[in-house]
Design goal:
This is tRNA (N6-threonylcarbamoyladenosine(37)-N6)-methyltransferase TrmO. This protein is an all-beta fold. The protein has 1 helix and 8 strands, in the order ββββββββα. Strands 1-2-7-6-3-8 form a 6-stranded antiparallel barrel. The relative contact order is 0.30.
């Protein structure tokens, strides 16, 4: 099987290096800008009615692949890559949930960005709690269950 993923835009942020970026949007207070390429602008129709979006993007600066990593929140305890959101993944696909500030033409302005500047955007999806969460009280977060505050970076 062969498949192709197209870049549909570019994510802009104040973070130029990996060490500058927060580990997740929850730990960010910075705004960002998502430029959707003109040929995909029509796909933004009706998005302004949503407060949050899920961004899928390509970790363009992550060169290495690791199946066992030492996450920021527990650097002394190695974890499997699929039990983390770390960037050294086999397919280098990242995910962030951001709050929409406003949409102008083909630009989405967001709050709480955690993505590096000029990151290739591969998809946008609206966050819909009714669809995205079932039995939210039963959601488990594995090794992160005792983590309540921002990790020391």
């Amino acid at each position: 099987m062969h498949f192709e993923i197209k870049q549909i835009g570019t994510i802009y942020s104040p973070f130029k290096k990996m060490e500058e970026a927060p580990i997740q949007p929850r730990f960010s207070d910075k705004p960002g800008k998502i430029e959707v390429f003109p040929e995909y602008k029509e796909g933004l129709k009706d998005l302004e009615g949503f407060s949050h979006i899920i961004l899928l993007y390509y970790f363009h600066l992550a060169k290495e692949e690791q199946l066992i990593i030492r996450p920021f929140m527990e650097p002394d305890k190695p974890k499997g890559i699929f039990a983390t959101r770390y960037n050294k993944r086999p397919n280098k696909i990242g995910l962030s949930i951001c709050e929409i500030d406003k949409i102008e033409n083909n630009i989405i302005y967001v709050k709480y960005i955690d993505v590096l500047d000029q990151t290739p955007l591969i998809d946008i999806k609206p966050l819909v709690p009714l669809f995205d969460f079932r039995n939210i009280e039963k959601i488990k977060v594995g090794w992160l269950s005792n983590k309540k505050e921002r990790p020391k970076q």
